[in-house]
Amino acid sequence: MKELPAATVRKLDHFGRSLSEILVHSRAAPGKSLRWTIIANPKAGGFTIGRRWKRHERALVETMKAAAAIPRREAEPSRYARSAGGRGVTGLCLTTGPGHALAMTDSLCEDMAGESGTFHLIITAGGDGTSLEVLEALYQAPADIRARCAVLRLPLGTGNDGAEAWELEDALRFLTVPTRVDFTRGLRLSTARRDTWPENGVFPGKPLLAFNVLSVGLDAFVTHMTNRMKGSLPGDSYKLWVDIAALLYDRIYRVGSMELAAYCGDGTEPRHIRERMLLCAMGAGGRRSYGSHKMILPDERNVCVVRQMPLLRKIALKGLFTTGEHIHTAEAVLFNARRVILSGEYPILAQMDGETVLLEKADFPAVIELTEALIPVLRKI
Hints:
The chain is of the alpha+beta class. 31% of the residues lie in helices and 29% in strands.
């Protein structure tokens, strides 16, 4: 990783010191000795984009004021964070590239195995990619480790749909109000040939997981192209690719008929759909957004299927996905399911919280299903 600009280093140091001062007053896991680890992406927009940093700096100041009224507690950076680098004194561990947050969380969990009697708070400071890696590592951690920790996801990236709140001031409030630990579900994608995928797969040898929305189709194409062009296009490149995809998606990927079987898990008959599908999105629950707050699942239902439609209709409706009004159109079908099985004839992209993989004919049937409730997260009481 290249040396960070001096201005970014100053922001990170200020962020780490401020968060440390808040954490020694935190109300998380009362009555227990608190250890924290902050896994931060120094290239996240919340640190590098000036206007966002100013807003975040104000949020830190206001939260420190609120925290000062709470008695100090026994709390300090985790043993792993203190040994992880020069910023260990504040518990701040910086990622250097894809996969690093996952590796750091694996190491943290190994370190936690030899330390009992404490509660660990793992804080992610980045976007959806950073939090995805941390949660993926926790998903595969031993149950006794997950029982002694919780995750707080701070919205410091360009995409923050998986964070506890969209604004930093709201997410930081989880540290100054009474909270509990809830265990939440994720989503797992498996396919007919998953075990034989080559080593250049998205997560070779590991489950394909998401913890917000897992989907296939046009939206995955938008995510894929946004990831490829990230850093090259100014402004909201996701929105730009939504506009482009409305025009070009059908020319790049053939939108053929797909079969879907949805199972609720309550013993009722499965729901069957055979349609030319533009996309199918499944959330870990309802009321989910993706692509920087596009409300794909605006109510309690956790699956949305959008039928193929003519070009002019795509152009007319694409803005409705930001507000969630698409659910009132004839093309959208929403329902609840614990397991969805998809089959099709043509290649189609899938995305898992912003990471993409191409599904080909040999991958069908593909299964998207809710995982067990394994991930410990803070919830307000």
